[in-house]
Amino acid sequence: MSRVTIFYDGACPLCTREIALMRRLDRRGRLSFEDVADPGAPVSCPIDRQTLLARFHARLPNGEVVQGARAFTEAYGQVPGLGWAALLGRFAPTRSLLDRLYGRFLRLRPRLQALLRRRDERHAE
Fold it and tell me: Could you tell me if 95 and 69 are in contact, meaning their C-beta atoms sit under 8 angstroms apart?
């Protein structure tokens, strides 16, 4: 069975939470995960590490690498009960809207990461 491969930033507290959710939901084992944060680790994607760290990317079973909202919708589309997500991502107007929203989220991401890191540090004390 072919899987969708998720390339994620394992040093990002937001990303690790999202990946943990995806792992829990992926009861059929249709997703595989590759942490691209470690500069010494090999990456099985033809896209450079910095680009992978800047945006969410996924490799589809046919080898195509997609990013942003399409990557999210394709990944969640593999999860039982969320197949509709992939359909949304294939519908151009919806994908366009989701990509714009994701772009706005990316501008907030550094501040959200900092907030989560501080919260995690306080809870670790």
Answer: yes
Whole-structure pTM value: 0.83
What distance in Å separates the CA atoms of residue 76 and residue 78, rounded to the nearest whole number?
A: 5
Q: Is the dihedral of CA 5, 87, 112, 122 positive or negative?
A: negative
Helices in 26-61 by DSSP H: which ranges?
A: 49-54
Question: φ, ψ for residue 71 (rounded to 5)?
Answer: -65, -45
Question: 3-class DSSP state for residue 77?
Answer: coil
DSSP state of 91: S
Whole-number Å distance between alpha carbons of 122 and 125: 5
Distance CA 87, CA 51 (A): 26
Q: What is the mean pLDDT of each run of 10 residues along the chain (125 residues)?
A: 88 90 93 92 88 93 93 90 82 88 88 85 81
pLDDT, tens digit, for every residue of 15-28? Answer: 899 999 999 999 99
Judge contact between 7 and 45, C-beta under 8 A: yes
Helix H or strand E segment including 33: strand 31-35
